[in-house]
Design a protein that fits this description.
four-stranded antiparallel beta sheet, globular, 291 residues, 35% helix, alpha+beta
Length: 291
Amino acid sequence: MKVAVIYGGPSPEAEISRKSAKSVIFALKKLGHQVFELELDENITEKLKQQKPDKVFIALHGSPGEDGTVQGLLEIAGYNYTGCNTQTSAICMDKDITKRVLKTYNIPVPAGETFFQGDKIEPVEIPCVVKPARTGSTVGISVVKDENSFQKAVEEAFKYDSKIIIEEYIEGREITVAVLNGFALPPVEIVTETGFYDFDSKYKKQTTEYKVPANLNLKLQEKLKKISEKIFKVLECSGAIRIDFRIDKWNNPYVLEVNTIPGMTERSLLPKAANAAGIPFEKLIEEILES
């Protein structure tokens, strides 16, 4: 198959995207596909016209790319592509809208409030989490543990988006569940020095631990998988997604966000979960490509 891999672009997460793409390209070539490497820029439509791929593998993170913009362009141009469609991508990129949709299906999410640029924002109960509504890789997110740092966290979040979310901080365990073509993979637990899986913990610190599969009782494992598969269904996802949870001390799960284009770097969680399910990296890429 002729496969074009799109990556990079102007997103704050472009460098992570390029790392994901590198792994994907290597796997696709190993599988015998003819691969075209395409950096996302203003000439992307011309590049696609020249290559005429059978399928486009989207390895973009953040906006543009994970937000439905590139998916819409590809649909108009008539190209088949991997992952979720335009509508689902746009919904999942916006954590505020995602939470609203999930709540209508009785899927548990943290309590919180949404604010827009120019709103008067009063300090809330501490600790709390302040985050841009439409970024990934924890860009612009802060865990506020004292009133003095609240305003700084709000300003930081507004650097990246005109809409932000302030929500309760749930003390507990960080768990992520990947769903591949509708079926949940083994949950992965993330253990960090600070208890917060921020950008440095994800991509820089060597002290971050990943327990694959997570050490959870069978009942909780099944509950997480059931919720994750329901999310895949109600948001009309396709391919591979990853859902981040926080588990409180009473083992109650709360959905933090839905990632429609999970990372594919050597530290990424989707490949770890797939491997735990007996799916090697090349097979994972093939299944995403064929979905």
